[in-house]
Amino acid sequence: MEEPQRYTLDDLLTLMQVLRDPQQGCPWDVAQRWESIVPHTLEEAHEVADAIERRAFDELPGELGDLLFQIVYYAQFGNEEGRFDFYDIVHVLTAKMIARHPHVFPDGHLASRRQGVAAADVNTSAVGQRWESRKADERQARAATSLLDDIPLALPALSRARKLSGRASRAGFDWPDHRGALEKIREELAELEVEIEAGHQENMGAELGDLLFAVVNLARHLNIDPEQALRGTGQRFESRFRHVEKAVQASGQPIDNTDLDTLERHWQDAKRIEREQP
Known about the structure:
The chain has about 280 residues and is mainly α. Helices cover about 70% and strands about 0% of the residues. It has helices at about 10-20, 25-30, 35-55, 60-80, 85-100, 125-140, 155-170, 180-200, 200-220, 225-250, 260-275.
């Protein structure tokens, strides 16, 4: 049986052009603008992360395709307005990555290669410093006035907090180790408790934000991604609570009529089962 024809990148770009055609295209696609696609882009990026965390690799080509489709959308907008096209995106990206990896492309072009040193033997600290130096040069070329200028507002709050604190750290605005971050957490928790006792709702929100920011700083010092850590906790909570629901359901009693001690017992049972799993 003959293999079905496999579509190419150019086919995908043609597909987008047809979808956006005012006469022959899809009304929904024709109506879209830069801003209307952004929420879909964020959603698709999170769905990629979710598939990876669930190790659902059979779903990943579809999820990555959905994310790529968002890039194709923006490229089509740019092409329609005479700003850029998809191949401009590819060119700018490739040129930028070559420039940021002189330890891989020593002659500054794609065909050049490092000789005599395996990747495992390259000084990763020096590579990181060069990477940040290149990015700093790029920010300067864009006339950025602050180290924080290019950190997107649309990032998830925990990720943005990590980037903000990490960028400030490069300027020396940081504790020497995680102990300073731990002490800051204790300080912010105490300040939050004061506002809770005083009943100052607006101040509570500000102090809670400060506490969360301090926790993100600790995560950075421990080299832990706070988004991944919190998503993992959310998954564990969901699994444990589902166990509690099933256990209460088996007893024939509604969960909202079950006393807290019983719920806690089922919760601890769920944690025990987790620990015993290989």
